[in-house]
Amino acid sequence: MNIKLACIITIIFSFFTVLVTAQTITSKIVDKKTNKPIPYATIQIAENQGIITNEEGRFSVTLKKTTPPIDSIYISSMGYEKLSLATQNPIDTIIYIQPKAIELKSVFVSNKKLTIDEIIDNVEDRLEQNYHFDITQKRLFFRESEFNTMNKLDIEFKKSTIEELNKEFIDSIAKIIPRKSEYYTETLCDYYGGPEKRKINIIKAAELYDKNNSGSMEALSEKLERIFKENVKPDSYLKIKSGIFGTKVQVDSILENSEEASAAKDEINDKKEDKSKFLKYRRSAIKGLFKNMFFQDDPTLNFIRKSGRYEFKLVDYTYMDDSSVYIISFEPKRKEDFKGTLYVNTENFAVMRVDYENVKLLRNFKLLGLSYKENIYKGTTIFTKGPDNKYTVKYLEKIKGNIFGVDRPLKVIEKNKHVKGKRKQNELALEIDAGVGNVSKYEIVVFDAKTLTEDDYNNSKENTSIKPEYLSKYDPQFWKGYNIIEPNAAIRQFTVAPETE
């Protein structure tokens, strides 16, 4: 063969080899019989490595160059046949998988038939040997989605002795406050955690929200600050009353000279850019999600630790990760909070998946015009078994929602004992009737987990130099080259209106 031609063929072959070993596969997993998307399906790319489909059955996985190269990916989901796809062949944008037939006899080949109480007792007795209670390192992707809705906002103007704080201005405040807002954060990190220890090393992060909402509120704050300075004496104090309740605030503690005010603004701006604050909150949020697992001590999800308070029922059998599992429903006997479904391994009695939701308000407070309801608390957690035969989180989804309301009068009265005559200098009186709904959704995908020694943990470092990148709309290129859980339609379609951006 001609030497030049051989070189060209070698170069072309090498080029295509790089493409294959660094290719990105984006697809959707669908039930072959029903044509419905399959959420939480596993796409395994190597031993103990992989990604999971989102709630719409979508996934995107990057196959980086490895030795030996990855020649196949494996797709599995509870109750479905496992599917192997060769990476050297084109992979369809829609992948169909077949439901798996359940042979009931095979479930009990090595197990005698147990009662539901015996199964649950075994689950509780084996928590220590089935789950991690020591320090681990997890490479994970964490997405937080927050939705706020102003269900009601009526501000009735009653009285003001300050000319600029008139009815028109108060009405304009009600118009500026956004009725709906969305806020998303995405973080890829290493999380080092145990019962009392936690660190986080952020690799990359993004924030997706509308800056115009916060900008409008900042402009309003600056205008109120100017009105306040021009009309209120520095040695006054404010008496803030709502109904029968009142409190005093010294104006000297609010008003500052121009140099101090400038420094305060600089400090506020610094806090907006404060990387450690972002890191601190991510660390705290992830810790809270892991700490409240059903197998931890005194969790909110108490259906295993306080199993006597729940009614369990064995409803069916299926397969997960090639293991036969019991499908067990649960609901409270009396006053407990949750109902749901457990998927329990028939051999080692590990809970491999749990779906749960609240059956009543977790909190319900109403007093003197103030109300608070915690009305949503639900989620799904899926576990996978590691090389040490202990189970760790593969995917976690948790949704919390609450409604806050206030229907009360509000008076702000300026008083000054250094002025001759009446102490009262100014007064603003309003009637406020407002209701705000909040829904927060948390998602965690764990790509890899391993146990750490005390020395390993102490030697681990937190990267405080990483700052989240602001995105005004979803950018599919931002996470290119990284394996994450695909965003849902709401995130993909989010964008800030061009005329106000």
Automatic annotation (TrEMBL):
The lineage of its organism: Bacteria, Pseudomonadati, Bacteroidota, Flavobacteriia, Flavobacteriales. This is Carboxypeptidase-like regulatory domain-containing protein. InterPro entries: CarboxyPept-like_regulatory. SUPFAM superfamilies: Carboxypeptidase regulatory domain-like. It comes from Aquimarina aggregata.
